[in-house]
Amino acid sequence: xxxxxxxxxxxxxxxxxxxxxxxxxxxxxxxxxxxxxxxxxxxxxxxxxxxxxxxxxxxxxxxxxxxxxxxxxxxxxxxxxxxxxxxxxxxxxxxxxxxxxxxxxxxxxxxxxxxxxxxxxxxxxxxxxxxxxxxxxxxxxxxxxxxxxxxxxxxxxxxxxxxxxxxxxxxxxxxxxxxxxxxxxxxxxxxxxxxxxxxxxxxxxxxxxxxxxxxxxxxxxxxxxxxxxxxxxxxxxxxxxxxxxxxxxxxxxxxxxxxxxxxxxxxxxxxxxxxxxxxxxxxxxxxxxxxxxxxxxxxxxxxxxxxxxxxxxxxxxxxxxxxxxxxxxxxxxxxxxxxxxxxxxxx
Length: 347
Prior knowledge:
17% strand, 10-stranded mixed sheet, 10 strands, alpha/beta, globular, single chain
């Protein structure tokens, strides 16, 4: 069964032969078939390409296979593959999951009913054998439509859960997406980029329904979802500031590219939201610079004073009001002021 609007499934692979066939079958079994599947392979040395080519011969939709001669890394691989997509909508796809049959149909209905720019959903956690081990809600409690600048500025939804309008990928040049917000080096990943654009100037439908069996195994590129209690609490509160991960500079860069977009001749309906979003990210840049000062000062009283000053000027107000949220205030008191534990940057 086809769809009223075309969806391009964009998959990045790298030595994914172990689980790839099962994932490809789940795409072919969609109630709403995609218009195309783009498979971009990052110089695999296993049987990934053979499996993809075998699927191509019998797939109920066009399949395009791209073979990178040199490794790009998963983020750049996804970005490059996205540029090859032609559908009205794009669905990111990992090489080792299993899609439930109504994933694409549910996403398309939600986007078209709400007018949203991005749709994200929950997942069922499974192990290497495909046995369910839990649920992954991504922090989504109920289905809702999130307005621009209402989601956490440094948040993310995992790429496998994303279906979005292709338009938003091209609003700002992805090659100018800036540095990674969680990792020490490298450019922003594909899912963090789409999250930034959609959450800053678009509308996002969040849905807790598990529409993918999200496989966790020993070769996942994404971070572990497990950890000790202290690590989980630390992750819940948000990111510690660190002088070597300059989120102040990243936020300032985001403010600049959003203002450039606003001042451009682009006719997108989303352009009007970019000026406000630019000012929002400029304020975030200022608050993040002040947070770094808290973590780098030697005296506890000095650190406390800086933290309270940031609280006083509204640095820890809610996301919706342009702040960093109370969670980061708690984080900064514990890890920045009290030095309860050395600040750790982790996604």
